[in-house]
Fold each of these.
Amino acid sequence: MEALDLARAQFAVTTSLHFLFVVLTLGLAPLVALMQTRAVITGREIHERMTRFWGQIYVINYGLGIFTGLVQEFQFGLHWSGLAHYAGDVFGAPLAIETLGAFFLESTFLGLWIFGWHRLPKWAHLACIWIVTLTAYASAFWIMVANSFLQNPVGSELRGGKLVIVDFGALVTNPNLGMALGHTVGAGLWTASFVMIGVCAYHFIKRTAEQEFFLRSMRLAVWTGFLASLVTVGFGYAQFGVLGDTQPGKTDGVEGYLANMMTLGNLLTVISFLILPPLLIRGWIARRRILLGLLILCVPLPFIASILGWLVREIGRQPWLVYNKLTVADGVAHVSTASVTFSFIAFTTVLGLLALADYALIIRAARRGPGDVPLGARGGPGTSASAGTPALTL
């Protein structure tokens, strides 16, 4: 393979692995915030325990996902200097806003939330997780602004051989942005709902003592999946009209990816829309062992569908890096094949190991159940077990 092909393959693999973390983070954040809101309003212990248990899974995924995001930044500098030179003034602006204005706030308030249990007032602590959620979606917005510019480079013009911003408003109201962002948000909620459903199904099969805990969690997950199916499918189909205007012929050559994604989407819709809601009545679902086993097997499906959707969006733009303005061949850096091969192997190995570690830790936390969750426990993260005072080490 030549350097160009390796650079493209590296970007596809590392971005796909990174997106596996992102899609779960986007979905879990608002669900954890809703759980804590109920805990603060009702004062019921079960809602606080739900917040801590599912919040622990969220924190694991978020913490390891940060490192995969750093690899994405390295890629642009290593192998896509042509893009940076030609369109960096436009493409880099929303990425800079995302990093400085959204990600830093998100990580700061997440730290306050993790270490603020039993220290901050309840409403202040609740505000932290809602700020985390809002800034997570702000990050998604700015990332999609940058990606939508590559798909449909509005708000810019060519000056001195480079694209510059001439209308920032056009950049953030890109017709390619709205439907794609809604589709992504729905996919995140869908993914989180099926992760929760799978974990609950596992504990129903094991007949753990926490049946009420997981039945309540299952109800939240099922109704979230129900609503997310409407959002994801609705925005997904709505994109075709926009693509017909801005990127005609985009789906040519990616029919296989598209068909597989839609098949998985239809299957998940049937499960979310028709099968699960009736089974919540009187807790019938907790006694359907065969169905529960099938639900556990369904957990990877929204992740697969999300990756297929990303492939359709990106491969369908080829051969353009910036649609109708800069080709992929002109955007790649002039580096040796050996250099790209080394970084491809190194990045893929690191991200692959992080993904394996992430899912191993999530599975471990999920199997242990809510009985022994460090997050938010007296003497948990940031406190000493004996006195509840700040710990010197983590």
Amino acid sequence: MSDIRFIAEWEPIEFILLALPNKDTDWDYILPEAVDQYRRLVTAITGEGLKVALLCHNEMEAKEIMKDADQKLISYIPIEYNDTWTRDYGLLTVMRNDRLCALDFGFNAWGLKFAADKDNLVNLNLDKKGMLQPLTYRNERDFVLEGGSVESDGKGTVMTTSRCLQSPNRNGGKTKSEINQELLKRLGCDHVLWLDHGYLEGDDTDSHIDTLARLAPNDTIVFTGTRNFDDPMFEELLAMRAQLTLFRTSEGDPYNLVELPLPDPIFDEEGNRLPATYANYLVANNVIFMPTYSQPDKDELAMRTIKIAYPLHKVVGVDCRTLLRQHGSLHCATMQIPEGILNL
């Protein structure tokens, strides 16, 4: 039994980490729309009484942008970053010998696809600025790992995808066995569920697990599916579903499977399909923030479906069509932080 436990997303948290778009990020071409997207997202989070740690380039400008949100619940952190996807460069939290540890993994922008020099230093700089509790920071930067690529049940099981974690541009194309050893050593995970199928058109993360399938309480997996035979992703999502039926818990039991609908196709200005998915939701204490896409019937069905897996949680929908224009969604833009990590 490992002395390390990778905390599940549905366990208690104190803060949600976000980064505000600015002119130096990839949002520059639609900056007013992007800023409004984040304003609405932060307002929704604070509206449920949850604290936000907001990375920003200019604190005064950020406060003006967020003036209608509950200021008592927002901590502003002036710091440099390339972009706003805190899920993938934010800290991952584990319990290590009954102490909280904030793990700082390497981030290279999803396999060297974009600039990441500043994103990769955010956690290190937070520690240097004294914004992390003493002795919580742990340097794991010799291994590339994005938060959106791993799902934890808090009991030693991790679910991930082979397309992502075996990408040659991340950790040199390690074998599953080699990566299993890394996940055991760093996250304490002794049971790894490798998903070999499933992808979303327009996704540039190499099939992050948080776009496809999510671990939920009570040995449940919530996943993206489609019954549309004409959808180009139908065969892959069907193969993914078939593999999910074969997954077993560490005790050898099958998982309860809950299938989310696939949003109707959404395209960018050049006609390229964007990776819309309802699986990219955030669990934050007793609330689930779920992306919506101005598709009333599908949005409502997705919210009702998530309630099957989380019957005691309140589900709050947030329109994420702007986030989608940069090929991400709600979970990608947020990172949950348990109490005892940030010193704000």
Amino acid sequence: MTQLLFKNARIFDGTSAECAEGMYLLVADGRIQEVSDRPISASEARVIDVGGRTLMPGMIDAHIHAFASDVAVQRVEAMGEAYRTAHALRMLTHALDCGFTTVRDIGGGNYGLYKAAADGLFVGPRYFYSGKILSMTGGHGDFRQVEESPRYQSVCGCSSTIFNTVAVIADGVDECIKSTREQLRQGAHCIKIMGSGGVASPTDPIWMNQYREDEIRAIVNECVERRSYVSAHCHPASAVRRCVEFGVRSIEHGTLIDAETARFVAEKGAYIVPTMVIIAALVELGRKLGFPAQSQEKAEYAWKQAISGMDLMRQAGVKICFGTDLMGSMYDQECREFTLRSEVFSPLEMLRQATSIPAGMMMLEGQIGCIAPGAHADLLVVEGDPLKDISLLAANGRNLRTIVRGGVVIRNELL
């Protein structure tokens, strides 16, 4: 692999507000080898003169669903695997063009897409996935309409019932353990559970807590033994608190959180991945795109508290990650998440949320989301100063002069 030598760079390392100028950075074998304030000798390296621009880590979108090709689950299922895969490739290519060199698919991702990305069958981000989400019967992963009959005859004793592209149904400790082990066997990097009601599911109220304590603790224990972790979909404060108390590492959404719960999450050192852009997009476009009426109502309810909930997280000092949760044709609004978060957070806070903080949450600290020797060479050159103007990163990649993923130059507009 060709060596890369960046020179005359202003470096944001993923954490510090102090950005050293006139820096040099050497890449070899896909990783950062050296960072120095003095010239680095590398006669065979390809030289990229950053020209004083900002060199920063590639960003991380910690909440995507690559196969969610429509806002209506029934249409996602009806169009079939080939269509969903084509959507995934379009979505992931767009993410990389926007500077997201790593994504975490937190529901529905699989080994096939991971292997295709790893083998270079398409040019996309570094891809991590949680496999099928675990949901209780009637939970947020159960998309059957209220009038549908039970499907007891389809229950598989080896891995629970697979109802849809996103989730499996597992009830009771034994089923939860078996389903967790099955997803981990299939290469899942973590396990996600449905810890509360949600927007897209038709029969569960958004305020509903889901899964018993013994079920959640059993799932957490399996992941600890695998040196992995559990993520939980949660909207209400009650669900957030109990999931964190029972050992969940990452809370997805946390939309209806309160101040006391936010302080509890911060004290426990857990993470939250708010997803503002999907809620805003559904409120604006859901009806036009055929989002089910009962789900549209829940989205509008969640949006009323989404921004204020995020502010409570900030005040409490919660470790917050960048995530988007976009579906179907909304995939191209990924960068808008920065614009929505700017109502609460500073540019520096958002830069950390998209780099070093999710890296820590994913147990990949020092590997991604940072500029340091030994880290993967996932790098961006930004035209302008994103620490002063976050809108530079909210422009679908138009202000990115260079994109490097794993030491491979994806884009370079610097001569």
